[in-house]
Specification:
heterodimer, A: 3 helices, globular, B: alpha+beta, disordered N terminus
């Protein structure tokens, strides 16, 4: 699971304001508001970074240990996937 | 604008409406509908020579002319990139965005004596058209009370029951009420402005016409035991405002437009939560 690569759903519209992202899923107009950590995970879900790479970036940018970073990244990516905000490749 | 196929037919009644900066040419040959349109939109009539953004032609037809699969539905859907179908109650409309014309077909059943508001379908279609046209112009319709006080525009936003009509009623002696249901915001000449619309809630007052003013503040309403105002960050304001924007799009382009418009609105206009008691003393805090 650590090596899967998340890719943002191209149909999702988003904007970032004050380090927080607002995401709108067009098919049902669901609105999601992400805190700064979740926003960074969303930004890094660009099809270029595996979950472990995203976790490593979180360690560098936020005051968090590697284990917590990986756990947060996995949970958030699973949540994004369940809401059809991202697709997952590899793994 | 290409002439839509109805333009060359003789229609007895037509009127050019102007809501904000959006011009809608309305045509029908059905006399029974016209008094409702004239009464409801009397304050939003424009110069007949102005070029419309969209032309609406409304035909009243027998019930069997309404496709069976559309009857009783309530939906807005894209038939193609440039054609939108809108279905409401006993009628439906198809908007050809390329040719800027919208054809409405309404069942004669809506004009039986027992039906109180035959103009409901027309009003629904106008709201939908306006919400889309405004997005292209950097504006939007917001569920809110809008008013002008001392030449300045204000929006009071809240869910049903939050107090929008109460604010309108309390403010009426010293303000021009633009609407207590749907207010229009639009960026013109680099300034965010608020305009009245012909769409009203419970407030029964001297309905404003198509006037507008620079927007000076947005207030998210909460009824309380004492008055209080708290300024919001842009992010906090966006989170509250997004749920009050009227839109029907289910595509990414529309979602992006709405996000950008709401972000610009919240960046350019101070936003607050307003706890208020049901008298007009809250104006002391706003002033």
């Amino acid at each position: 699971m650590n090596e899967v690569i998340p890719i943002q759903n191209q149909n999702v519209a988003y904007t970032i304001i004050e380090e927080e992202a607002a995401l709108v899923h067009p098919t049902d107009s669901s609105l999601y508001w992400l805190n700064p950590v979740a926003t960074r995970i969303w930004e890094l879900s660009d099809g270029q970074n595996s979950v472990s790479a995203i976790a490593a970036a979180l360690c560098q940018e936020f005051e968090v240990d590697p284990e917590t970073a990986l756990d947060d990244a996995l949970k958030m990516i699973e949540s994004f996937h369940a809401k059809q905000l991202i697709q997952i490749v590899g793994g | 604008m290409k002439l839509c196929k109805h333009s060359i037919q003789y229609v007895r009644m037509q009127k050019l409406l102007c809501i904000g900066q959006t011009k809608i040419l309305c045509r029908t040959d059905y006399e029974a509908l016209w008094p409702f349109i004239e009464q409801h939109y009397q304050n939003f009539v424009a110069e007949a020579l102005a070029k419309p953004n969209v032309e609406i032609v409304l035909e009243v037809v027998s019930d069997k002319m309404i496709p069976a699969h559309l009857r009783g539905q309530d939906a807005v859907r894209f038939l193609s990139d440039n054609k939108i179908e809108m279905v409401r109650g006993n009628g439906y409309a198809v908007w050809d965005r390329l040719n800027q014309c919208c054809s409405i077909k309404q069942s004669k059943a809506d004009f039986q004596p027992k039906v109180k508001h035959p103009e409901y379908l027309f009003g629904s279609i106008v709201r939908i058209l306006l919400s889309y046209l405004l997005l292209e112009q950097g504006g939007c319709l917001i569920h809110s009370t809008g008013l002008i006080r001392n030449g300045q525009g204000y929006l009071f936003v809240g869910k049903s029951g939050a107090g929008k009509s109460t604010v309108a009623r309390l403010s009426a002696p010293t303000a021009k009420i633009l609407s207590d249901d749907l207010t229009l915001t639009q960026c013109l000449d680099d300034e965010m402005s608020v305009y009245g619309t012909p769409f009203w809630g419970d407030f029964k007052g001297d309905n404003a016409n198509n006037c507008g003013a620079p927007l000076r503040g947005i207030y998210f309403l909460q009824q309380a035991s004492k008055n209080d105002v708290t300024q919001l960050t842009v992010g906090q304001a966006m989170r509250q405002l997004l749920g009050s924007v009227m839109h029907f799009g289910q595509d990414k382009k529309t979602a992006v437009q709405i996000l950008d418009i709401v972000k610009n609105l919240c960046i350019s206009t101070p936003c607050y939560t307003l706890d208020f008691v049901p008298d007009n003393s809250f104006w002391k805090l706003i002033n």
